[in-house]
Amino acid sequence: MHNNNYHKNFKLNGTSFVSKEELMSFSKNISSSITTFLEDWFDESKTVNVQTSGSTGTPKSIKLKKEYMVNSAIATGTFFDLRENTTALLCLSTDYIAGKMMLVRALTLGWHLDVIEASSSPLQQIDRTYDFCAMVPLQVHHSLEYLDKVKKLIIGGGAVDNNLFENLQSVSTEIFATYGMTETITHIAVKRLNNPSLQGVALKSSNYETLDKVTISKNSRGCLEIEAPEISDEIITTNDLVEIITKNEFKWLGRADNVINSGGIKLIPEQIEEKLAKIIHQRFFVAGVPDDILGEKLILIIECEKKENKVIDQITTLRYLTKFEVPKEVYFIDNFIFTETKKINRKATLNSVEIKK
User: Fold this and answer.
1) 52 near 59, Cβ under 8 Å?
2) What φ, ψ does residue 284 adopt, rounded to 5°?
3) Integer Cα distance of 235 and 257 in angstroms
């Protein structure tokens, strides 16, 4: 695979190929994005340019070593026991790392990969069962009644809220949340979300378990640092606040750049959101906005067409929120703004709200 070849068992949309040229020609009928990636993958360069999603900062292009992408593919295959002839569904955009890596896994490990358009309800028209698939939370939310078409599902690109988590408990599919980013060539850690009896995992263990050959630590800011020599030449410093449990296990707390300093109290939005999810069933998030007295004040934004006073009343009586975690104001907005990778664009959504002065 390192010599720009691909596994002999690899199939794309049910078709086998005798040469790279035949494969690239066939891919033109599926998507120009896939063709462009395959041209890059099979050229003489040792690296591939990949665009970051921009959900946590300005989108940028970074170079990833092909050798490391292969290593990542093998690590995933080993962790989830996905061998050659695994049937897999690609329903993510191949403009970004998650979609590209589904292709790399299939090419490297000899999977039979079917590609469909990236939509919010990808399984609706599918009439067969797959061994493996990767989705973002929005796609899973719209696919709950069809999830039995997938045996193993990984969810990345955003947090799984309490509402979605509860809905996954009655599903037979083995479902995992993943932790990673473009720089780590998708996931470097995984946590089980349902069916605990299958692996004896404690349900709703909020801890991530790292893949093989990944070492984790925490820096002075409390943020996760990742040492993974098979996928990165450098130690990767993240913006994710974590609690280290063991040498290969950590709990994700939230993002350092989302922390709100309100009157000298540091608030982590993701932890407040987890508590609020017990009573709010629409999409929502909390944010900090400038305030003359507090420096920043905590507000809540709910995706809802009409103002719901009932929600506001419930929030003020929530026992498990500290007084600092109770939002000072609640705003209702018809539609959230999303990034191209279907994550809530918090900044753009916040900017679209008229905040009271």
Assistant:
1) yes
2) -160, 165
3) 20
Residue 111 pLDDT > 70: yes
**pLDDT tens, residue by residue, 143-182:** 999 999 999 999 998 888 878 888 998 899 999 999 999 9
Cα separation, 101 vs 127, in Å, equals 24
Measured CA to CA, the distance from residue 241 to residue 85 in angstroms comes to 39
Which SS3 state, helix, strand or coil, does residue 147 take? helix
Which tokens sit at 15? 């078709």
The Cα–Cα gap between 71 and 267 comes to 38
Q: Where in 198-293 does DSSP place strands (E)?
A: 207-210, 215-218, 223-227, 236-246, 249-255, 260-262, 265-267, 284-291
Query: Which domains does the chain carry?
Result: 11-255 (3.40.50.12780), 259-351 (3.30.300.30)
pLDDT at 198: 52
Q: 68 with 48: CB under 8 angstroms?
A: no
